[in-house]
Amino acid sequence: MSDLPAALHVRSLHKTFGSTAVLDGIDLHVEQGSVFALLGANGAGKSTTVRILTTLLPFDSGTVEVTGLALPAHARDVRERIALTGQYAAIDDVLTCAENLRLAARLAHLPSATIADRVRELIERFDLGHVVDRRAGALSGGTARRLDIAMSLIAAPQLLFLDEPTTGLDPRSRLVMWEVIRELAADGVTVFLTTQYLEEADRLADRVAVLDAGRIVAEGTPDELKALVPGGHLELRFGTEPDLDRAAAILGGDSDRVTLTLEVPTDGDLPHVAALLNRLADEAVPVEKFGLHSPTLDDVFLTLTGTTDRKKVSQ
Ligand SMILES: Nc1ncnc2c1ncn2[C@@H]1O[C@H](COP(=O)(O)OP(=O)(O)OP(=O)(O)O)[C@@H](O)[C@H]1O
């Protein structure tokens, strides 16, 4: 753990709406300069968490420190150090891209002498040059999201909150956004993002917390989380039941007589997989098809939350 104050430190955070406990005592710790993903299905409490951490919503009890400053006492100072890009862009549709950026700069009280340079820098960095004079309302979803992030970075925040940054984007725009987030992290900005997409958390985050019904049910690096679920396996399919039975006798594993498949545990290491296949070849057992299955965050999510609605948690 670094000597720097944590970007975020949350202990036993509770939030109730009416009689519903939306956050039921969550703990979070985010190191400076890291990318942290809060993963959860619809309604898990992700946006509520972000709204509390960004000073927009009061909480009932617990400790919340953002960039080393306690909330709610230091809300004003915290707001100067953070930025938030929500699911719904804070862009003014009738203004052009450049005008939106200049407006954001004035709202952030940037000295007027520095505004033009800062706007130019962000236009270049976020590849907005070709749309700079276009009305923001006419931008594609992905470009609007890039403009939104550019606007939120105008005052160089220490900590950037991205609430579901790629929800609703097509796969290509999602890849562009992932690249943008990686570059921010490489520049030292701490990124706290929420997502419903396991692949997004896997690809981007140094650490991931899984939020389910207002509780953190797991936290760790993507690899640590994957280690929580049963390991990978080699799936072998055979043409006949006798072949399946012979293979099962040789290799062990779980066989399924309906699909004529055998699942044999493996860590996915090439020599191990090759050795398994060679044993069947040595005994002249014909394999029709085979495939390797490694544990994914999908498996973690399904195991931990019991959710079977895969649409919600992966795409
Ligand atoms: N102002 C409010 N009053 C009452 N209930 C609320 C309020 N805001 C959120 N909730 C409830 O709190 C729960 C968590 O909502 P939240 O928006 O934090 O979830 P989420 O994980 O961000 O979901 P999504 O992915 O759909 O945005 C939901 O059941 C929601 O209906």
From TrEMBL:
SUPFAM superfamilies: P-loop containing nucleoside triphosphate hydrolases (SSF52540). The keyword Nucleotide-binding applies. The keyword Nucleotide-binding applies. It comes from the Bacteria. Transmembrane segments: none annotated. SMART domains: AAA. Gene3D superfamilies: P-loop containing nucleotide triphosphate hydrolases. Its main location: membrane. It holds the Pfam family ABC_tran. InterPro entries: AAA+_ATPase (IPR003593), ABC_transporter-like_ATP-bd (IPR003439), ABC_transporter_ATP-binding (IPR050763), P-loop_NTPase (IPR027417). PROSITE patterns: ABC_TRANSPORTER_2 (PS50893). Residues 8-238 form the ABC transporter domain. Keywords: Antibiotic resistance, ATP-binding, Nucleotide-binding, Transport. This is ATP-binding cassette domain-containing protein.
